[in-house]
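Attaching the record inline, Q. Sequence:
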Amino acid sequence: MSIFEAVAEPAAPEPGPQAGAAVSTSAVAEPDRRLVRVSAFLFGIVLAVVVVLGGAWFATGGRFFIMTTPSMSPVLPVGSLVLTRPFDASKVKVGTIIAFVEPVAPYHVYTHRVVGVTPLGYRTRGDVEIDADRWVVPQANVKGIAVQAVPGLGYLVRSLPWLIVGLLFALALAAWTPWRWAVFMPLIAAVVVVVVPILRFRPLVNAMYAFRYGVAPDEKARVVNTGLLPLAFHITGQTGSTYVPAGHWTDLPIPTLPHKFAAHITAHVSLGIVGWCILGLVCASPLLVGIAVTWREWHVERRELASSVA
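Structure, as predicted:
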């Protein structure tokens, strides 16, 4: 080997990464998607349990109905899922709650309390109402006897088609989106999935004017809190407000006003400091989860990148 060849021969590379070499971070930056797989697995288990239990209930003759009116508040508030057993005339008495179809218009199912038993059938009345229903329910029109009710679960049942499709879409986003969007994109989709039924069915904050009764100056209006949060009702022009828990009703005195004026009733959410804090945390939970997971993945990426360079 000549001196010229020795000078031209490249020096042996030193240990460590070569200068100018690009360090791939794709394997380092890829987040752990076990959370997505576990979520999908748990979602499938819950869905399977619901299907099995629902099928077993129907197989034994049970049915369920969703309360869409406040006629039976507070026992069966709006949004309750009412479970019924097959009709048995020997178990129906005054005070029993039955599900039936109206004799005149048999396309709508009512769930009212029996207030009288006659040879022709049953006299019924909603707990919110003052007067009994205008009809007598024949035994052939009774669909079942109410045995259990779960407040608020009816809202979830009505939202199930949208929730199932939306949650599957959110899981697909979490599994297939690039890692830098694999947290926020599914969270945004999940928020949309939850918000749409809330805007459609208004389960949290809602109220309904039932009727008014009496004569001035003792005339009253019966209002019902049909949401899942407590409300405070206020009559314009009067001081103070009336607290009404979720699913309950109250009678408000209507002030005597000139004929051209009307009494306006307003309602607002009535929560204490603890309640507002809990509600705020629930609303902010998607953002907090996104920040926490992103912060964790960022630290994992930096640690793995540092170890690969070293």
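The longest strand covers residues 109-118. The CA atoms of residues 81 and 157 lie 8 Å apart.

More tomorrow.
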